[in-house]
Each structure stands twice: as C-alpha cells, then as structure tokens.
Amino acid sequence: MEQGTRDQLIERYKEGTRVFAEALDGIIDGELDARPGPEEWTPREVVHHMADSEMTSAIRLRRLIAEDAPTIQGYDQEAYAQRLFYGDRPIEASLEAVSAARRTTGDILDRLTEEQWARGGTHTESGPYGVEAWLEIYAAHAHDHADQIRRARESAHLR
C-alpha cells in the first residue's frame, strides 16, 4: 500500500470516533431503540457492537504488531448482541470504549515502521490477515455504522 493511501486511511480511522458520535447527536429514546427492519440492529445495539468490535480490533492490531504470525480469532457478533445485553444497556460507557480504543490505536498507527506495516498473521474466518488489511477494514467501520444509525433514526420518524 502506498504511503498516501495509508495516511488517508489512518485519518479516516481517526475521524471515525467523531463521525460515529455525530450520528448519535441529540438522539432520543424512540430513535435509540428504533429497529428499521426485523433483522436490523437498533442504534443502541450498534453502539454496543461498536464498543466490542473496536476493543477487539485494537487487540488484534496489537497482536499483529507484537506477536509473530498470530492467529486472529473471529467471533459471533450476533451471540455477543444476544448475550451481552445490547438491547437495554446504557450507551455512555460503550461510547467511551470506542473513543479510547480508537485514540490509543491511532497513536500506535502514527508510529508504525514499514516493517511493522508488513506484519501479519491468519484470521480464523478470512485467512491471511495483515496490518494493512486491518486498517482497510477499520478505517471504514465507524463510518459504516454511523450510516446505519442515521438510517435507523430516520426509520423511527417514518412510522
């Protein structure tokens, strides 16, 4: 990956916290628990997913950098949603977790050497998995879920 592309993805990753928070700005209870479709998550559930995913992704990156050829374990996000009380927990702590995971990880991304950017391991669900692939996925993650929250909020007003 070229340095310019990498820099853009790092910036997108870092701005993800703000974009995600803005999607929730001024949210009311009716919007927070709006389910746009039978198989879709509410904004509350999305927030808790983001916290769990971002904490997991932060550890994944650290393992890719610090360990030799780690095996990165996938997880069942639906099981997390069902078993970790996504449907009724307050969102504040999860928002703080997203912010902290991204802030500390952004500090690491700014310091990686070319050798570290080339490191990788194996993901149990997708095979070869490296630092650059990690960045491509998580640079978009918060933006994608911010869009999901905006759609859910809009659906609350269409009913």
Number of domains: 1
Decide which structural class fits the backbone: mainly alpha
Count all strands and give the number: 3
The overall pLDDT average reads 96
Number of helices in the DSSP assignment: 7
What does the oligomeric state look like here?
Answer: single chain
Major sheet, described briefly? 3 strands, mixed
Top-tier CATH class: Mainly Alpha
- CATH level-4 homologous superfamily: dinb family like domain
CATH topology: Four Helix Bundle (Hemerythrin (Met), subunit A)
**How are the strands ordered across the major sheet?**
1-2-3
* Residue share in β-strands: 5-15%
CATH architecture: Up-down Bundle
* Unreliable residue stretches: none
Shape: globular
Itemize the secondary structure elements and their pairings:
Layout: H1 3-24, H2 29-32, H3 43-66, E1 71-72, H4 77-83, H5 92-109, H6 114-117, E2 120-123, E3 127-130, H7 131-158
Parallel strand pairs: 1-2
Antiparallel strand pairs: 2-3
Helix pairs in contact: 1-5, 1-7, 3-5, 3-7
Tell me about this structure.
This protein is mainly alpha-helical and 159 residues long. It has helices at residues 3-24, 29-32, 43-66, 77-83, 92-109, 114-117, 131-158, and strands at 71-72, 120-123, 127-130. The chain has a single domain (3-158), classed as Up-down Bundle (Four Helix Bundle (Hemerythrin (Met), subunit A)). The protein has a three-stranded mixed beta sheet with strand order 1-2-3. The protein is globular. The protein starts with a helix and ends with a helix.
